[in-house]
Amino acid sequence: MNFKSRIIIGCLLGVCTLQVSAEKTYKYRINLRDKAETAYSVGSPQAYLSERALERRERQGLKVDETDLPVCRTYIDAIIGKGASVVTKSKWNNTVVVEVVDTTLIEQIARLPFVTKTKKVWTSPDSIPARNPERRKEVTNKFSKTDNYYGQAYRQIAVHRGDSLHAAGFKGEGMQIAVIDAGFYNADEMKFFKKMHLLGIRDFVNPQSDIYAENYHGMKVLSCLAANQPDVLVGTAPEASYWLLRSEDDDTEQPVEEDYWAAALEFADSVGVDVVNTSLGYYEFDDKTCNYRYRDLDGHYSLMSHSASMAADKGLVVVCSAGNSGRGTWKKLTPPGDAENVITVGAMDKNLVNADFSSVGNTADGRVKPDVMAVGVSSAVAGNDGTVSRANGTSFASPTFCGLVACFWQACPWLTAKEVIEAVRRSADRADAPDNIYGYGVSNIWKAYQTELKKRK
Question: Its GO biological process terms (predicted)?
Answer without folding.
Answer: proteolysis
